[in-house]
Amino acid sequence: MTKEAARLAVTFLPYEEHMRKSALQFFLVCILFSLVSPSNAHAYFDPGTGSILLQTISAGVLGVLVFWGKIKRAVKSLFSKRDQPQ
């Protein structure tokens, strides 16, 4: 590294530090603003959203029941006696 390149690198360090501090300040202000601002969205669930939620919940429950039934049958078949053909 030449002396000129070293001098330029030293002169840019304060600018980079200033930018880093500015970015941190901006980030902290955004977080503070999001914590202080009101959180009411004044939104609603329309019938389509409600039906999608109902379908998702019912599909999840039925999926768990079917899966549990298959596991139950598999475990039961491991411990049951099998008749040996003669």
- By helix and strand content, what is the structural category? mainly alpha
| Major β-sheet profile | none
Low-confidence stretches: none
Q: What is the tally of helical segments?
A: 2
H/E element order:
HH
Overall pLDDT = 79
Number of strands: 0
Rg from alpha-carbon coordinates: 32 Å
**Secondary structure: helix percent:** over 70%
Could you give the distance between the termini?
A: 91 Å
- Strand fraction: under 5%
User: What is the domain total for the residues?
Assistant: 2
Described by the principal axes of the CA atoms, the overall outline is: elongated
Please supply descriptive tags for the structure shown above.
single chain; 86 residues
Provide structural commentary.
The chain is an all-alpha fold and 86 residues long. The chain folds into 2 domains: 1-36; 47-78. The chain contains 2 helices and no strands. The protein has helices at 3-36, 47-79. It is elongated and about 95 Å long. The protein starts with a helix and ends in a 7-residue tail after the last helix. The model has no long low-confidence stretch (mean pLDDT 79).
Topology (elements, then pairings):
Layout: H1 3-36, H2 47-79
Summarize the structure.
By secondary structure, the chain is mainly α.
